[in-house]
Amino acid sequence: MLRSTPLPPEAALTGRARALAYPEHTAAGLAALNGAIPAASALALTPEALKAEAIRRAGGPVDFGPAPLDEPLSVLCRSLNEEVELHALGRLQVFNQLAGLLTMRLRFEDLWRRHPEILDQPVERPIVVIGLPRSGTTILHRLLSRDPAKRSSPFWEQVAPLPDGDPTAPQPDPDPRLVRMRQSLDMLDKVVPDLKLMHELTADQPDEDISLLIFAFASLQFEWSYRVPSYSRWHQAFDHTEGYRYFRRVLQTLQWLRGGERWVLKAPQHLEQLKPLLSVFPDAILVQTHRDPVPAIISLASLTTYGGRRYYDHPNPHAVGADMASIVERLLRKGVEDRPEDEGRFVDIQFTDLIADPLSCVRRIYAVAGDALSSEAASAMQAWIDDNRQGKHGGHEYAAEDFGLDAGDLRRRLGFYQERFSIPVDRRFAV
């Protein structure tokens, strides 16, 4: 996986860790791995090759715009080529993901040039769900999105924000992007069938903003997915204010195309980008979910290591565990350090309260946001709750030792956060 971090000996791995490091692929997974070999061997992960492919796919536009591009793309490509060992399918997926985002960026710039009125769209008082990963952000985001008066971006739109062909032309029903996403998720379920136990991806429900932040490299998506150390260091040191301005332009475009006004957004990455976020969205209402960070880190390590089989022959559970602990600590420290003194714009939601009584948590949020919870919205939310009970697809088991982590060490490192927000200790991971 990482050239600099060898996989631990099998004897040093727990049973669960060995299963993650030496994955037994499904028949569909093996077919995808083997089928990628011919195409992947001809691909060059270089800025020049990716830009050329994007221009070819866009079929006309050649202006990528002034937002951050050349420096982050060069650093990312260098990290991918020198620091990680992608298998053939991983290389093919990375190439298509990067070429796809560059293609979409060409199309955005072309659309804004032809329709500058798009960038006059108001994006006012968004409700932004923040909080560490695995702390209920997805549950809360999808619950809030059931309100017809709110605008969220379904996963199919996040992955392909612009329609096929001319964005201003009437679109078929159902949208071809939705159809493709359903097909892709069906295949994903065949390749990584346990993913839904950890994080269910649904074509028509919203997911993380990281998919809409990638176009100006203001997203943690590459760090989460690819494990790219040099790029991660660049990302941490860079001021992403311009990337968040680009994110706002993307939201304006989605409004212009499909309507909606009051956005509900979500991403744990916003915790370390509060300054850029509030600079670009100064009237945002911020909803921070809180959970004991120890099980959150271990759960995240499990999800990330399992997903790593899409890119690597042997995902390294110990390396991923160390990375996840570092990233979560980083997010939480920045979230505490950069949280403004104006607490009136924040709503703090404990994970235990969210699971026990989600609608009460929604009412608290609406009170701060100045919204009324309509009976229609409340009914839609209750229906979603009834259909999405915890454990719907089965249980997700994990332990600190699976990822080379020590719960006591994690608790000492993250005590500042638990004390700051009076977060109860999960008894399963008490020290």
UniProtKB/TrEMBL annotation:
It holds the Pfam family Sulfotransfer_3. Gene3D superfamilies: P-loop containing nucleotide triphosphate hydrolases. This is Sulfotransferase family protein. It comes from Caulobacter rhizosphaerae. The lineage of its organism: Bacteria, Pseudomonadati, Pseudomonadota, Alphaproteobacteria, Caulobacterales.
